[in-house]
Amino acid sequence: MSSIVEPSDLVVVTRYTRGVIGPSLGTAGTVKDGGRIRTVTPPGCWGPMITPIFAGGHEVSWPVAVEGAKVGDAIAISIEQVAVRSRATSSGTMITKRAAFGSDPFVDRKCPACGTPWPETRLEGTGPDAVRCATCGAECSPFAFDEGYTITFDDERLMGLTVDARVAHAFALDARAVAALPEGSEQHPILVYEPHTIPGTLARLRAFIGNIGTIPSTDMPDSHNAGDFGAFLVRASHKFALSEQELEEHRTDGHLDCDSVRAGAILVVPVKVDGGGIYMGDAHANEGDGELSLHTTDITAAVEVRVDVLKGVHLEGPVLLPVAEDLPWIARPFTTEEIERGRTLGARYGVQVQADVAPVQFIGTGPTINDATDNAIGRAATLLGISQAEVRNRCTISGDVEIARLPGVVQLTMLAPLDLLDRAGLGDLARRQYGLYLPAEDGGQ
To answer: Which domains does the chain have, with CATH numbers?
Structure first.
């Protein structure tokens, strides 16, 4: 990867990809180890989906190299800010238009009338027929809503409310401003479709980043940088086709759609090209676990992260240290009272209590939820140096598995022994995240 000569304490990114990430892009600069990256991310999903020039389902920030990061290292991304800028967005369940793509509507788009691949387009008016081929004038978006809605946000971005046809139309007339698209964004704002089902529905908001991490070691569509969406690249007919082995080798699972990847969380990601290539995008105002409609509230967001290189920490996929309140109840750090109860019980039976533990989440992805769970279990076993059976047992009685996205992204939470996390190079990071400091007198909590 190319890099500037002098790394900076802060790299500000104002350039965005057209749906593809990988080594061929180069970088927007190099940030110092311990430095920060700041950007304003355009919405992912629906806007890029109806913009046929894109070869992926998102519009993410140009990658940034991290000083000293080499293949086989990891990078800890501390998420410091995810601030919603959009006033409203549109989303919903989707249908595809078969004549407007080849093997994948997110990737190999074409005009259904003149056949131009990845055509330049313009907007004519509003509504679901507004995206027009610049060559022949035909409507050429590969996606439409099955049932869609438009949702607006209060000034503090704490609550959302779905609107009726009248308000949705008013937003569509000023769609780019309402969406707060950054100047460099090339997507058509999805608000122009003006969907308006379920008006009057209230929703709690809590913004997060849906696609963030290091670039894969080969060029691929940004939305397909995960084991579930990436499965559609296997034996595809377009130029981004991969074998199953190549997908496993190159992907970095940045497309998480995990609502715990929010301000205060730490995401630890593998480095598969020198410099890492940190990118981010696909921010959402909210999401319920599973993202059941496959899409949620895409927004423009101001994002700032800190990056720290973890030398020699080899990961097969992302590891997440969420904000403590986002952890499942069963896998939260033990309180002093709980530890004392455990030690009393241990004294009764002559068993040494293993109290020096910390929560950690292993991200797993795959074509199905079961595949993703097996992937996370395998990654946990490899990193911690224990059997998959031990992972399953620990995650059953003091852990959890949560669905980030259907069909195949999960968060496997474990209260892991700190000596195992120390050996893996993540112990100190977990201690800092959860305030776990060991009293000197007994070497334990």
So the answer is: 1-315 (2.60.120.580), 324-434 (no CATH)
